Amino acid sequence: MKIISFLLLSLCLLVNSQIDPDFFDLTTDDTELNVQQSISDTLTIPKCPENFIEYQNECLFISQEDKTWTEALLECQQLNSTLLIVPTKVIIDYSVQLFDQLGLDGNYYVGGNLSDSKWSWLNGKIIKSEGPWWRNCSSESINECLEINAIGLSPVPCENYTNKFICQKSAKVSVKSSSQNIDEECNEISKCQNGLSCINSQCKCQDGYNW
């Protein structure tokens, strides 16, 4: 009997020594599963206001009427935006892609003008007065602004000249969880989550936009 007991004990020790210690670690696996589930339940969606088009993480407003450059700038500001600023030094590549993907044609005012004999965007970044991005030779006359078409920039008068224009603003990125949807009912007890606000007993985006 002693020999049998000894053999059984040895066998148990041998089996235990070969078991992976992580076999009993259920907490790690559960945590990883919860993280993966959380990621799968979350969706990031860029959002633009009405009449704006989402393009390369920006919201663009393409005007349908002609205005002077100054009038165009004011209208963009009223839309909480600014005239388009090309976000790269490779201006022709950007303009070709922009006009092709959005199906644009013709010329549009953009957010650049001549100040102190230097061309610059409205954010202060300088535009070199010589380069392949100029469709026509750049000018250094007073009161000059910029228009763009598919093949580059051109200087045009800021006043006494009208053109269509493009406004620009950053796209609002919203995070939506599948655990709660817009228009879901809410009250003082059942509150909204994920940044939604309880408006007229329904969960809504606070600024009024829907995803």
From TrEMBL:
The keyword DNA-binding does not apply. GO terms for cellular component: cell surface; plasma membrane. Residues 1-17 form the signal peptide. The keyword DNA-binding does not apply. Pfam families: Lectin_C. Gene3D superfamilies: Mannose-Binding Protein A, subunit A (3.10.100.10). GO terms for molecular function: signaling receptor activity. Residues 55-168 form the C-type lectin domain. This is C-type lectin domain-containing protein. It comes from Brachionus calyciflorus.
